[in-house]
Amino acid sequence: MGEMKPFGRTLPRKDLCSLDACTRCGECLKVCPVQEVARRREISPPEKIKRYREFIRNTEGLKAWVLGAHALDREALEDFVRAIFECTTCGACGQTCTVGIDTQRLWPGLRKEMVERGLGPIGALAGMPEIVARTGNPYDLPAGVRFTPWFPSHVAVAERAEVAYYAGCTGCYEAQPMVRGDVKVLSAIGEPFTMLPAGQEVCCGFPLFITGQHGMLKDLVRTLVDGYAAKGVHTLVCSCPCCVNMMGKDWPLYYGKVLPFRIRHITQYVADALRSGKLSIRKSLKERIIYHDPCYLSRGVGVIREPREVLRAIPGVTILEFDRNRENSRCCGAGGAARKVFHENAVAMGRLTINEALTKGADRLILSCPACHSKVHEAMAEYDRKIRITDIMELIGSLIEEP
User: How far apart are the first and last CA of the chain?
Assistant: First the structure.
């Protein structure tokens, strides 16, 4: 290979400081879901940071300045790229990091640099921009069926309203019970809500962001933000944790200014409705349920209390907890687009979630993420251990008295 462009120049200063801060203490190895199922230390968080530091030293650091930039070994680069794309970007390593490295933001940044160098993404992920440009979603499915057949016929959608609902690609195409539950509950609250037409509700941009393919993000974000602003929206409600994370943290950056509305996860909106009396749950549920905190909801945006508040409003229910819960929850395997390439890892992680739920004596596993919903169902399909899996709004929708 010829001389490489210096590494590290495109990273924010915070990320460069984080790379230097890593002490290789190994605390993150105890919580990394990929390590738990793959058992390969060479793809662990400290090893990725160590390797990237070496890239910087060989192309940008004092050693490179004195001796000249060294050509990097192609195999070492390819191993590094595979390691950062095998990660689920769940952020558990950052949560336990003794020096506070925000890995849920660091790993996507390193992916972006690899894409800009022509070294990533890997596998089917490389075709995602073209697919999103053509269909508006990363699943290569027609925009015209985005809201069918799951949308309830009795639910009315206003042309204009202060509240809007964004269903999201994974919910619409891979976790339809989840989004059906969302709109049933929104309808039961009784406040008018609006939506963009199926052809205009395009991908939020998270799949492209998380795979380091940022070229389309400004256009996608502007299409969505301007579309909701034109409908007079003040509050945008969404149930997908990855979408909510993207909307809250990255939409303002790509839009170029403060959003004209606020972002709310649906459990926040529903918890408010329960407190104010706009929504009540009268049907009881005599079950032991266990709730799984999605990585981008708990660690990503800090929505932890509201899902539990909503579940506690169900008469008769007993709520159990995983050993690792709230901001310390374990990834179910669906995160960071890694499930698209490293299917075996994702299935193994999903089965760990199923196993613990059953060991705890739960009758039902409650999820609140469409990627989790899709992948954990898939993990259970050919597994000898079974548990009923339900999305949180799917459950609430089945217990409310609709108008």
Answer: 67
